Structures are given as structure tokens and as C-alpha cells.
What does this fold into?
Amino acid sequence: MKRQLGLGRRRGQIPTGTILMMAGVMDILMALGLWFFMGQGDMMMTLVFGFIGLSGLGLIGFGFMQNLK
It folds into this structure.
């Protein structure tokens, strides 16, 4: 019998990789919006919002790895 491809998850299980990737995108958009409205010209705020944006990239990468697993 041929094994069915269930993408390695049980039926009804939450697709955590996709949720992590969406959270990463929203994190980047939030950091961009906050920087645009609050932090232009302020180097400290730019660094803080840059760090938030980079953590969003990390969430996207981690979610992608979860999807590949």
C-alpha cells in the first residue's frame, strides 16, 4: 500500500509553521509602522525597531523550518 502524504502531522493539528510565518510578517509590518510614525530621525528608536524587524525575520525562518519538518 502506498503511504498517504499527510505532511507529517495528525489530522486536526494546528499548522504552527504557517502561524509563525504570519506572526513574523506582522512583526515586521508593526516595526515598520512604528518606525514610520515614531522613530524617524531618532537613532535609538531606529535600533529598537530594527531589532523587532529582525526578530520577525527569525520567526519567518523558524516557521519555514517547521513547515519543512
Observations:
- The mean pLDDT is 84.
